[in-house]
Amino acid sequence: MDLSSAVTAAASTLRRRPADLIPFYLLGTAVPVIARIGLFTALAGVYLHLELTGRLAAARESLARLDLTPPDTQDPEALQAWGESLAPALEPLASPTALALVLAGTLATAAIAVLTYAAVSAGQMSAVVARLRSARGLTAGIAGVRDRWLTFLGIYVAELLCWLGVLLLGGIAVGAAFAVDPFLGAAAALVALLVGFVALLLVRAVFAFAPAAVVVDDAGAVGAVEGAGGFVRSNPADAAAYLVVAVGVLVAISSAASALAFLGGGAIVALVSAVAAAPALDLLKTVLYGDYRGAVDPHDPPEASLRAQLSGGVRRGWREMTAFVRGSPGLHVLAVAVGVGFGALGWLAVDPFVGALTTSIEGRLVGHVPPVAALNFFGNNWTVAIATSLAGVALVVPALSSIAFNGLALGATAALEENLAALAAFVVPHGILEIPALFVSGALGVRLGIVSWRTLRGRRSRAEFADALETAFWVLVGVGVLIAVAAFIEGFVSPYYWRPFL
């Protein structure tokens, strides 16, 4: 199959029943939310340790006797002197136990992130191959997470070792040459650079197709690497073409992110790359490898236009969201209770610093550009909602922790605000849409966590879990509509209407 046909087949498959594939790529955005549970747990342990040992109370008393207001100057010496004056008061917080807990939490977060990424990748590629075989993608993806996560982890470790091996061998060769003669070392460095570049390019080519080989061939890590290597040897043009397309997409995304950064569109670019570019590239390489193996049957293009699909999807998303809200009041009460409860906790936690440290909504609105801000608000808030919801598949806790974290941050910010009336006036117009949308995402995360737990225990089938993921996709489309309207209000209305009155 030539590259043009493969691109058409990948696009057609992505457009047909996107809700049967994209949820696994949305799940990829939730990996950081799931992983940070390790650090959050460690920080909770630190807080309990400091509270029970009296260290936190001692720090509070010491800080209460100090002037916490930073000097109104950019003089480095004055800032350094101010920081040094705070050090004795903060010293009780740096206990060996607290430092050990933070280190353990950081390591746990890194380990959870790696393992979760491998599991999600296994699900994504399993769903891709199933869609290319006209089977249900989400069901296959759920099975792939359980059956193939270790294989995907092995592939990623093997590629890392190959990269390190190439770099190490090149470094040893260049070092040995320089030890003999500087001119020989310079020549060896040039050769090592060229040979190393080609070697790393071949490594990337092989391991780019190895994930597809795992699922298409139902192979282990070694067999997948062998299969991918055979494909690269037999079809060098297709492999090279895929790498060119992948690099082109990466460059385009990076360029768009850089160009839109000053317009506030960075979050939108990141989200589009996660839910459109990533599945499209996975489909493309799987079509190429699957055609080589004669193991896929790509879809024909859908009859409906892209515009009709988008408008129909938005309408369905709104219906699914309203139905979910009506059908799960208990879950929404739980999400609201967690958010409000941790908001109150954040308010109380910063009470010792009220007056000494301040935040200012009017200060944050200096230089506000409405279209830039609206785009940024939409991208950030929808990304948070998606990650919160899909993180719930890790047995509920990450979804609730995300709601709790945001509540804590908002409560602390409000407590430190120097003009609370202005902050309330700013938040209310868009908050009546944005805050409920985030609570809906939290409730959706709890529901996914419950279904995940029941599936794990054998009380729900994989098909039912897949149904829940597909429904979640459409609910998040509806949430996106709410957040889009809220972002418009927050960008164009909230910063201005109250100024004549306050």
UniProtKB/TrEMBL annotation:
The keyword Cell division does not apply. Pfam families: SpoIIM. The keyword Transmembrane helix applies. Keywords: Membrane, Transmembrane, Transmembrane helix. The chain crosses the membrane at residues 24-48, 98-129, 150-177, 183-203, 239-257, 263-284, 331-350, 435-453, 473-498. PANTHER family: SLR1478 PROTEIN (PTHR35337). This is Stage II sporulation protein M. It comes from Halorubrum rutilum.
